[in-house]
Amino acid sequence: MTEMVVVRREGLYCVPGDFYIDPWRPVERAVITHAHGDHARWGHAHYLSSAPSVNILKSRLGKDINIEGLEYGERIVRNGVTISLHPAGHVLGSAQIRMEHRGEIWVASGDYKVGPDSTCAPFEPVRCHTFITESTFGLPIYRWDPQQQVFDDINAWWRANAAEGRASILYGYSFGKAQRLLSGLDPSIGPIVCHGAVEPLNRVYREGGVALPHTQLVSETDKADFRHAIVLAPPSASGSTWTRRFGDYSDAFASGWMLLRGARRRRGVDRGFVLSDHADWPGLLSAIRATEAQQVIVTHGSIPVLVRWLCQIGLDAKGFDTEYGEEDDDAPDDAPAPADGGAHAQADAGTDAQADAGTDAQAAAQSDGADPTDSTTAGKPARRRARTRAQPAMSDEEEDEDTGEGAVPAAAAGGEPSDA
Q1: How far is the C-alpha of 395 from the C-alpha of 78, rounded, in Å?
Q2: Is residue 277 within 8 Å of 177, Cβ to Cβ?
Q3: How do strand 271-273 and strand 230-233 relate by DSSP bridges?
Q4: Known EC number(s) (predicted)?
Q5: How far, in Å, CA of 346 to CA of 338, rounded?
Q6: Which one is predicted more confidently, 365 or 133?
């Protein structure tokens, strides 16, 4: 089988098509799977993305970028390679890239999830010979609870705080995660207030036809209303002076990493809600099977474990060394090492990540792993804590929280702030 896609210093390169997929250095032609900062970088001469991603990319990289949008399923030909984009279910506009050349079909997934999400088109399995997949949560311990259960737990936490006259601050990545959280909130509980880095993306989602509840900025909210409000903010706002305006508050973080007790503890938040825009272990396996690919290439995440498992079930599997995942919504500094190849999945050394990468992967995949409900989604009232966390310097997106100028963040100047 010929190598249609290889790794170069600039990124993943389609050899016959002469274009790059989510390159991490400036190139002439870039095909973008989605608008998160680790996949969509500033400085390319020409961008190709799904049509729903165009306005998002312009809002994040600058309105003057040279970009072409394709509808899902629409086909174009570049140097003899037929390209089409198909829903990935990750965030609004996320797409898998299908490449066909001389009868051979490769698909690059970008980031994806297979679970329900009303804010983006659902994952579409695409049959291919070679599937290039992520594996952010490529360990058997990662198994998500139903989305509605998580939403119910978040609303119960908010409702309990409102009953006590306490603001609820919920941290999640400003693009994708925040809008998914919004879609599950119960506006009858109280006002929904958004950080200035979140609200511009809400507008893009609404313009794209996504139904979201009414939201308002901090400057549009009476101080007394904070006692019943939920505030959606990026992780960079946690512990900053920006949070002081809300008075007494309880805070929480929404991420797949919140399944790990150690991650919750190091985040220093009252609650952790396990909600990820990436596929869990069963989701990864089901997505790979659905492609019917005989060769699978893993780009980022827990590469050795997933590659070993795929080889054991008879597939030709290997990993690619990429720069994805460094600025993603679900990539905290204390996450398990993505591809160390060592014996242990380096999650929380206590009890949450006991998946031994050196053990039989098939047996591990059949285990139940850690308990994803461990106090994370119990819906109990949040406790009040003394606010003694360090006060970090304000980022540009935090300073702009009431102006909405976070629409063009630091990505346009060479990278966006980490969401660790």
Answers
A1: 40
A2: yes
A3: unpaired
A4: 3.1.-.-
A5: 9
A6: 133
The strand pair at 167-171 and 249-254 is best described as parallel
Contact of 35 with 62, CB cutoff 8 Å = no
Q: Indicate the pTM of the whole model.
A: 0.81
pLDDT digits (tens, 9 = 90+) for 346-369: 333 233 343 333 333 433 334 333
Residue 92 contacts residue 117 (beta carbons within 8 Å): no
Distance CA 215, CA 93 (A): 22
pLDDT at 327: 52
Model confidence pLDDT, tens digit, residues 268-286: 899 999 999 999 999 999 9
**φ and ψ of 134, to 5 deg:** -80, 170
Alpha helices in 331-394 (DSSP H): 361-365
Q: What pLDDT score does 217 carry?
A: 98
Concatenate the DSSP letters of all residues of 272-289 into one string: EE---SS--HHHHHHHHH
Q: Set out the domains of the chain in order of their start, with CATH numbers.
A: 5-143+277-365 (3.60.15.10), 147-276+375-404 (3.40.50)
Spatial separation of the C-alpha atoms in residues 101 and 1, rounded to whole Å? 12
The whole-angstrom separation of Cα 297 and Cα 134 is 9
Residue 260: both structure tokens together: 């790990």
Residue 373 pLDDT class (50, 70, 90 cuts): very low
Radius of gyration over alpha carbons of the chain, in Å?
A: 21
55 backbone dihedrals φ, ψ, rounded to 5°: -65, -30
Q: Which two tokens stand for residue 156?
A: 């119960």
10 Å CB burial of residue 6 (0-12, 13-18, 19+) is exposed
Q: Give me 186's structure tokens.
A: 């119960």
Query: Degrees (nearest 5) of the Cα angle 191, 119, 44?
Result: 115
**Contact of 93 with 56, CB cutoff 8 Å:** yes
Model confidence band, residue 265 (pLDDT cutoffs 50, 70, 90) = confident
C-alpha–C-alpha distance, residues 386 and 389, integer Å: 9
